[in-house]
Design goal:
Elements: H1 2-25, H2 29-34, H3 42-52, H4 61-68, E1 72-73, E2 76-77, E3 80-81, E4 86-87, H5 93-109, H6 111-127
Antiparallel strand pairs: 1-4, 2-3
Helix pairs in contact: 1-3, 3-5, 5-6
Length: 128
């Protein structure tokens, strides 16, 4: 019985924290802009803002992608050059997760994004 009370207390604290985070995020102008992107919900928008901070600190898209760990990890040794480059995953795990969640959610939400995703998936499969 004590554990049930502890779990209920934990859930109440988490709900309070989420409500506070939501209220604070609503004061930030970019939050509302992020929410217009298909797949970006209140929690994802707040997470993106928290992880990226001031986007002006990234002079280029490449630096933001590297910060998120979405840049390619090139494996080369001598004359060997890998044909399969993977994402480096050096950056923020939380930012990558938020972006993945938004992408997955938008795939479920909108037909235009779903069609684009499916056409790219088919094209990618044909290239293999």
């Amino acid at each position: 019985m004590q554990y049930i009370h502890l779990l209920k207390t934990y859930q109440d604290c988490m709900n309070d924290l989420l409500q506070t985070m939501q209220a604070l995020a609503e004061l930030i102008e970019i939050y509302h802009l992020l929410r217009t992107i298909p797949g970006v919900g209140p929690l994802t928008a707040a997470m993106l803002i928290a992880e990226i901070g001031d986007i002006k600190r990234f002079p280029s898209v490449k630096q933001l992608a590297a910060f998120a760990g979405l840049d390619s990890a090139v494996h080369e040794s001598g004359t060997f050059k890998s044909k399969k480059n993977r994402v480096s995953r050096r950056g923020s795990q939380y930012l990558r997760t938020a972006l993945y969640q938004a992408t997955a959610r938008s795939h479920l939400q909108t037909n235009s994004w779903t069609e684009k995703f499916d056409s790219l998936s088919i094209l990618s499969a044909k290239m293999k």
